[in-house]
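Hey L., structure's done. Input below.
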Amino acid sequence: MKHGAAVAVIDALGRVTGWSEGARLVTGLTAEDVVGRPAADLLADEVPRDALTARAGTVALRHHDGHRVVLALSACPLLGPDGAPTAYVVSADPPAPPDAALTGQAFQTASMPMAVLDLQQRYLRVNDAASQLIGVPEEDLVGRFYPETVEDSEYSRVYQRHLRQVIETGRPVRYESFTRAPAQHRDNAWNIEMWPLRDDSGAPSAVAIAAFDSGEQYWARRRLALLNEAATRIGTTLDVVRTAGELIELLVPRYADFASVDLLDWVLGADEPPMLPDGGVVLHRVAHGSTRESDPGAAVPIGGTHVYPPSSLPARALRDGRAVLSQAGEPEFVRWLAERNARSPESRPLRQGAHSMIAVPLRARGTTLGVVVCVRTDHPDDYGPGDAVFAEELGSRAAVCIDNARRFARERSTALALQHSLLPRGLPGQAAVDVAHRYLPCGSLAGIGGDWFDVIPLSGGRVALVVGDVVGHGIQSSASMGRLRTAVRTLADVDLPPDELLTHLDDLVVHLSAEDSAEDRGEEVAELGATCLYAVYDPVSRRLSLAAAGHPAPAVVRPGGTAETVPMAAGPPLGVGGLPFEATELELPEGSVVALYTDGLLEDRDGDLDGATEALRRVLAAPADSLDALCDSVLKAVLPDQPGDDVALLLVRTRALGADRVATWDVPPDPAQVAVLRQAADDRLTAWGLEEAAFVTELVVSELVTNAIRYGEPPIQLRLIRDRALICEVSDASSTSPHLRRAKAYDEGGRGLLLVAQLTQRWGSRQTGLGKTIWAEQALPGADGPKP
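Output:
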């Protein structure tokens, strides 16, 4: 008898005939104490009937010291020659400790799926949760080879690979999987852990597996990743419609099978936000998307409008300012689906399977802009509270981007309207030059700039040509451009030379900057650092005088020649103060083309300023049907498809007033010569066929020449110019300018200039290098002269 085993032999009469050392150790009774006695004397309780029938079961024995010993007994019969049992060998297994039983119960009833496989990948144990997940009872899985119980898929292949890794290396493995279990109707996230089970020698004998449901954490990470992605994918452009489209691209298909963005009408315009109505809400569809690419199944087309009744989910979301959920079967969902099908019955099949929807308001800075509606059809999960929180956060971020785009569009529209109101709409008619111009506001995120141009008629048939560029973009730059343009026109009316005019303009900017600093607003005036080019063309002398304040030099094309950049000093930008501006003068033959432009024309060509300048020269020298056609050719040849800055282009073709249209007389400082000059002027008007203007012209000549002889200094000169108006000029060497005054009744003089002002269209004086010139213009009979 083995000493280590608890074994007893009982004969057919129930007496103990054999007793092992193991039995002694378990019961405390020796063989002398037991052999020959009835086995029933050793029992503490009666043997259960089912144990007798099965010859196995749990039996309570009486220990030598009196306490009960519970043993798991099994009986094996000893057969005689006739095949009948003559005795029984009863063996006892030590009772399982209480903690082992609890461990088995914990394994079987654990909420997480658990299983044990042998080293040949056969199932040994499967708990209840795993059986439910697989959809097969444990008794049908035990002993089966794992690959026989699953379909051939990427998930099962990964599972087997990790299983073999644990068997071969003896090290635990943990990995994450996203798959659909056989008994589940949707994919789910799992954290799977595998670890080896070892025998008494420490060698791996089996592999234990546990799967932790990490679906909530997985979807939370996915939602967080979507929010992070929204920061880079939504709002890449300051365009309202494009921003809404970017939101749809983010939502479909990862969050919704169908999504739409509807905005209130005022968001797409320049109006201020109105109060939300108590009744139905009119929304404008700007974007939608679906997992069905060919037909999204939208009841409202992009660009269309729809009135949402007060009870609808979108209207409730707008009114409550929070996300609103609805599932299939709920009254609101049923009404919404019925309304969609009635509005668009042809798309009814595409709405089959719709089971959950969420409406999220788009709110930014306390203002409601619109609503996002998301619907799930193929996605198995309904929207829940976690989705509502996510949708509100995403909607808030998207709303800020949409509101930024709306504000940009509004500011751009305002700045563009302001700039267009300040730029010349129709250039005044004059004979000095033919003019064509183009102004292109940039489409960049920076907004409208402060580029401008102008053509200003001056006295003596001359014309001033102006281009300028204010630093920065937006409404402030447009307003600053308007101030500078007004200042240039005011200084041009004084008829200053180009370099002096820029000096006064520079002083103005310096004063504006000083006032801004004094007010301590913390902002620089936009005029500071602005550039300007001012040029004056005289059709009589055919000379162009120009000066620049930090502005690019113009290009000139003489008839039959090539385009050249005018050699001139660029000068400092406006606002530097204390630095001089240099004037350049050149003589141009009639028919020359001068191109004045802002730096946006050349500085946006991939940084290749020389290449852009050469392209400009080349296209300016090419034949063109008209100046307008040449403007278009210049922009097409020089500008990129998407200019990054505003562009102002001014093209002029020079004209000349020949000797037949100009009459000049030197005036002796003798009052008796006034009558002679009056007659000479009358004769010239007769030669020009302007007899109707003779009376007024004689009075003007008489008054201006008399004043020059009386108050001026020689040399004195009289000049008549026949332009679109008749111009009378008297020049002398005195720098003292005349002015109108109200003569008293007893005054002998003081009424001449008042008479000139009443009889002519306009009059004035300008300083010259030798003194001053007094001039007066009168409209020619039947001609459209310059407006005063």
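The chain is about 30% helix and 30% strand. Residues 385-422 form the longest helix (38 residues).

-- N.
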